[in-house]
Amino acid sequence: MAGHDGCCSSRCHVPFLSLCGCTILLLCRGMIITLCNGKGGSGKTTLSVLLGSALVEAGHKVALLDTDPQHTATRWIEEIGGLELAIPGKGFDGALFIDTAPRLESKEVADSIRRADVVVLVTSPSPADLFTSRDTATLIHREGAKDKAHVLFNQVQPGTILARDLEDMAARIGLPAFKNTLRRRQAYQHAVLMGWKSLGSEAREELFKVALEIVGSVKK
Ligand SMILES: Nc1ncnc2c1ncn2[C@@H]1O[C@H](COP(=O)(O)OP(=O)(O)OP(=O)(O)O)[C@@H](O)[C@H]1O
Ligand SMILES: [Mg+2]
């Protein structure tokens, strides 16, 4: 992993994150990953920080751009560290996660979708989230970003009826879904105060797999 202008260090000891050479090169040149959903509480901030932390753990250069006026991600990172906070308007030669506000009418959300290499529509599997997720997909289509967008199911509870119908829900939203999903785990809530180090191996593995699928989805 070494040798890409110092972006990717050789300390990647994470088997789930064995990225192909092209993807590593893309990461080092700069890759923008925008997390969005007009629905508040779907997990955009939690996953921006934790997926970013997963890539840091794997030895990659990562920053988070917090475009939500509530600045939850900024406060979280200032509290626990581990991630760089990006400076608005400045380029970044690593993986840049953009956390967005739950406001589909916001120009900043539309801009963040347009400039992304990967758009991640974060939603729970609950039908209650379907309508806002669909509105978010409409915005993604309008911004010409549908070919780089996927649904990421968060707060999935395996064995439940809702967990069985993910493909159907993605089809109703109108975008393909990432194969990997994230479970509902208290550990993700604790991580706000305790950071990446507080996560157990199952939670880390789940985050690594999703992070890998996201960065691997960028068209070369
Ligand atoms: N996979 C998960 N398991 C358990 N709790 C989760 C998970 N994902 C998110 N949460 C919890 O759900 C709540 C909302 O998450 P978060 O703040 O990340 O959502 P958001 O989409 O950024 O919300 P907003 O749009 O209001 O900024 C938080 O309490 C968070 O800890
Ligand atoms: Mg948020």
What ligand species are in this complex? adenosine-5'-triphosphate, magnesium ion
Task: Supply the helix-strand structural class.
Answer: alpha/beta
Number of helices: 9
How would you sum up the global shape?
A: globular
Please mark out the parts with pLDDT under 50 across 5 or more consecutive residues, or reply none. 1-7
Which strands sit side by side, in order, in the main sheet? 3-2-4-1-5-6
Q: What is the CATH architecture annotation?
A: 3-Layer(aba) Sandwich
Q: Percent of residues in helical segments? A: 40-55%
Total number of strands: 6
The CATH first-level class comes to Alpha Beta
Count of the domains: 1
**Overall pLDDT:** 90
Biggest β-sheet strands, sense, barrel: 6 strands, parallel
Mind telling me the CATH superfamily name?
P-loop containing nucleotide triphosphate hydrolases
How many whole angstroms does the radius of gyration measure? 16 Å
Query: N-to-C terminal Cα separation, in Å?
Result: 18 Å
CATH topology tier name? Rossmann fold
| Order of H and E elements | HEHEHEEHEHEHHHH
Strand residue percentage: 5-15%
List the defining traits of the structure above.
single chain, 220 residues, alpha/beta, Rossmann fold, 6-stranded parallel beta sheet, 6 strands, globular, binds magnesium ion
Topology overview:
Elements: H1 21-29, E1 31-36, H2 44-57, E2 62-66, H3 72-80, E3 84-85, E4 95-99, H4 107-114, E5 118-123, H5 130-142, E6 149-153, H6 161-164, H7 166-173, H8 186-194, H9 201-216
Parallel strand pairs: 1-4, 1-5, 2-3, 2-4, 5-6
Helix pairs in contact: 2-3, 2-9
Bound molecules: adenosine-5'-triphosphate (ATP) and magnesium ion (MG).
